[in-house]
């Protein structure tokens, strides 16, 4: 079997402090992974005069997948290519509590669900402008009973939900629910949006996703308004299995769900297209702790296990997850955000010890 190639973008600020030791841990498994480092951000600018030169794009495109740290500035141009260029339409964000996670809930045990977020459209088209520019459309607000341009000086943003992209992400969500059901999960997809206030756009998302669900009779399908969903995430988080959301809601509420189990330092993600995927922690770059070696590498490590699973190393991914869970269960080597005093590298070393 030929080696797998992973393009690595370490990210900004404290992000590389999590990415580097995680790669060292994965390397210790001797899986035959070749790591390549596209010149993205400052390295690309210094060598090629561009933060995302053609050389970087070619390296990403030639790799089997990309392992991405957290970016806040120049490295984000690569992220645009990974999402819209590679059409990675499904953003998968697990929310799972394991013993030792420092959750603010009285009883977080049993929380184990996944948000599947549509990743390409909705409000993320970056199509905005001045309200007066809407005059040629002659559109009237259903609530204000006025033409949009008569509402006053201001700005607008366009929300777009399409049938094609809703179908593909809904199919992904139901297939994921099927795989999880085989592992003992509920076999349920919860679809949500603000369909009562936006019956055409959010309503279309609910309608199309629901139709896709009919092709999966073995999977339960329920619909819920997005504001009620936000409430239920707090009062009944254990009732969920796979949650399917449009882009904006998925982006916001997945951070809420990270808070349920113990914070963004524990939140991994994978972004999947038809023929490519990339993996990244959900948290930011933590500029306030750069150079201190205390960033929690858990989200980065779990993103790496999602990547290993994608590459076909399922057993190894499971081994790493179990080793990490053992470190949390013991509770002796945890980073400050989880109530401990350990350094980032000390945490990774503890996971390595559990792997032996």
Structural write-up:
This protein is of the alpha/beta class and 356 residues long. It has three domains: 1-91 and 266-356, 3-Layer(aba) Sandwich (Isopropylmalate Dehydrogenase), CATH 3.40.718; 103-122 and 160-261, Rossmann fold (3-Layer(aba) Sandwich), CATH 3.40.50; 126-158, no CATH class. It is built from eleven helices and twelve strands. It has helices at 15-27, 42-48, 54-62, 76-85, 163-182, 201-213, 226-235, 247-261, 298-311, 314-330, 344-355; strands at 4-9, 33-36, 65-68, 90-96, 112-118, 128-130, 155-157, 188-193, 220-225, 242-245, 270-272, 277-279. The strands form two sheets. Strands 2-1-3-12-11-4-5-10-8-9 form a ten-stranded mixed β-sheet, with helices on both faces. It has a two-stranded antiparallel sheet with strand order 6-7. A hairpin with a 4-residue loop joins strand 11 and strand 12. The radius of gyration is 21 Å and the shape is globular. It starts with a strand and ends with a helix.
């Amino acid at each position: 079997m030929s080696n797998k190639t992973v393009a690595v973008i370490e990210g900004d600020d404290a992000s590389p402090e999590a990415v580097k030791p995680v790669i060292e841990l994965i390397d210790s498994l001797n899986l035959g992974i070749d790591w390549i480092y596209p010149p993205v951000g400052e390295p690309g600018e210094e060598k090629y005069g561009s933060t995302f030169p053609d050389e970087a794009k070619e390296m990403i495109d030639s790799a089997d997948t990309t392992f991405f740290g957290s970016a806040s500035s120049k490295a984000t141009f690569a992220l645009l290519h990974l999402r819209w260029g590679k059409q990675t339409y499904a953003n998968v964000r697990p929310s799972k509590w394991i013993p030792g996670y420092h959750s603010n809930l009285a009883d977080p045990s049993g929380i184990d669900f996944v948000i599947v977020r549509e990743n390409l459209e909705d409000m993320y088209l970056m199509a905005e402008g001045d309200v007066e520019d809407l005059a040629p459309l002659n559109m009237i607000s259903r609530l204000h009973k006025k033409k949009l341009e008569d509402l006053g000086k201001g700005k607008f943003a366009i929300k777009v939900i399409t049938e094609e992209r809703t179908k593909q992400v809904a199919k992904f969500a139901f297939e994921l629910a099927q795989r999880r059901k085989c592992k003992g999960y509920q076999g349920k997809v919860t679809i949500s949006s603000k369909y009562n206030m936006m019956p055409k756009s959010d309503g279309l998302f609910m309608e199309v996703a629901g139709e896709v669900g009919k092709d999966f009779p073995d999977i339960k399908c329920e619909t819920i308004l997005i504001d009620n969903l936000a409430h239920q995430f707090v009062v009944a988080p254990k009732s969920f299995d796979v949650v399917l959301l449009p882009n904006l809601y998925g982006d916001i509420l997945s951070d809420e769900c990270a808070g349920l189990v113990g914070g963004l330092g524990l939140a991994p993600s994978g972004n999947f297209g038809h023929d490519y995927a990339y993996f990244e922690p959900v948290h930011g770059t933590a500029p306030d702790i750069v150079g201190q070696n205390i960033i929690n590498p858990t989200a980065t490590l779990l993103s790496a296990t999602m990547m290993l699973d994608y590459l076909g190393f399922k057993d190894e991914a499971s081994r790493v997850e179990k080793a990490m869970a053992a470190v949390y269960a013991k509770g002796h080597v945890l980073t400050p955000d989880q109530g401990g005093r350990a350094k980032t590298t000390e945490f990774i070393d503890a996971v390595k010890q559990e792997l032996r």
